[in-house]
Amino acid sequence: MDNSRLRIAIQKSGRLSEKTYALLASCGVKFNVHDQRLIAHSTNQPIDVLRVRDDDIPGLIMDGVCDLGVIGENVLEEETMMRERAGEPSEFVSLKQLGYGGCRLSLAVPNEMEYEGPQSLKNMRIATSYPELLRRYLNEQGVQFQSCFLSGSVEVAPRAGLADAICDLVSTGATLEANGLRETDVIFRSQARLIQRAGSIEPEKQQLIDKILTRINGVMQAKE
Ligand code: PRP
Ligand code: ZN
Ligand code: MG
Question: Which ligand 1 atom is nearest residue 14's CA?
Fold first, then answer.
């Protein structure tokens, strides 16, 4: 890879992808996303766009492998907490909340389960892809519980007998409804955020970042 080019990590496909492609396009960063390659070279700027799993983006920034990243705050916060617990580097610079990719991380229980607040989850098994955020919330509530980590398909865990309840992302609520679950507590609200790696960066790259940020501000203001 060419180190003189600015590296931007974005989600390859998922909640944030389309709007992030559109945002970069509206900032005048042209690149071809019609192929399956991991790296898309911008055709008009010294920029490489890395299309990766969203969960990998915070680490790529915190390890200084990419210069910029567009990521959901839920994933960012989870990775930060995980790294702090492990004593690993978790630094990044927050540049901008982008106003899209809104979702919430919520607790949900089977429709037929009685629920009178977080205490109802005492000693239960809760499936989630966000163990740190879940633990922080239930610790604050003083509720002991067991965690069951699943990286996907969390919503089927209660029916499959893997867990009593879940903690997962909700946007429309359709996934919960389709799985006979009801949302009880919102524990974290999230949207897309632009972040930069911590530490020194070449002046040319910083100028390019500043230019992109100015354009993003312009694009977002025009939409207001
Ligand atoms: C999340 C979550 C549900 C879905 C909920 O997954 O795991 O599957 O969105 O959305 P709904 O309320 O509109 O039905 P998603 O694949 O978007 O997130 P991820 O890429 O982080 O797994
Ligand atoms: Zn994901
Ligand atoms: Mg999902």
Answer: 20
